[in-house]
Amino acid sequence: MSTDQTPAPDSSPFRPDPGARDEAPQFVLPLVVRIERAAPPPRTDALETAARAVLVMLADERSVGEGEWARAVRDWQDARIRKVVRRARGAEWRRAEALPGITVTGKSAEVRVFPPVPLDGWPKDLARLQVSGTDLDDPEDPPPADPAAPVLWMNPGLDMSAGKAMAQAGHGAQLAWWELPDEERAAWHAAGFPLAVRTADPARWAGLTAGGLPTVRDAGFTEIAPGSCTVVADHPALR
Prior knowledge:
- The chain is α+β, with helices and mostly antiparallel strands and 239 residues long.
- Helices cover 32% and strands 18% of the residues.
- The chain has helices spanning 20-23, 43-59, 70-78, 90-97, 124-127, 162-179, 182-190, 202-209, and strands spanning 27-34, 82-88, 102-105, 110-113, 117-118, 151-154, 196-199, 215-217, 229-234.
- The strands form two sheets. Strands 1, 2, 3, 4 and 5 form a five-stranded mixed sheet that branches. A four-stranded mixed sheet has the order 7-6-9-8.
- A hairpin with a 4-residue loop joins β3 (102-105) and β4.
- It is globular.
């Protein structure tokens, strides 16, 4: 129940400063969120489903060892850990579902995750999908997170599109996965990767970032400044 490679802290794929990872061939993990015009998913549900989709990909038997996706996953983890979220509906979604990947369903959100592809080598049915337009809202405030469950705390001071926030939530889930002992990984996997995504209380944010939990500092490719702290991954086994 372990990924093939777990980056050391000083070689984090999310660090904003250039390093050896920038010299490796660059790959990206594509995620596609289904957004039908008449029934878009709530924002929080989409973020949580995207984070779970990343974990499902990492834990899938095809992504490790001699699995059919393992080489692509290793190449992706050797470079910057990029995730790009695109949106689809109708026939676009059906074409995306026909490609090799895994669809993960939340309360109403659907996200399909695909094995990593070269940065400039997207399948045409994914490359034609739009990145913009993933602005989603919660019709009502999400309930408080269960303190006994993993929580991905989002930076309350950053304004991110839903697509960007979905990618960041995926980064946070991945960092937690890397840091967990094998036994805890197996337990999380067996439970179906329960987790919550919540925006942190501004008064708690500084303490969360200084508490030794896995923290995503964005490389600044899109939307926000390099080095911005976007997510703190608060898994009970890491506290």
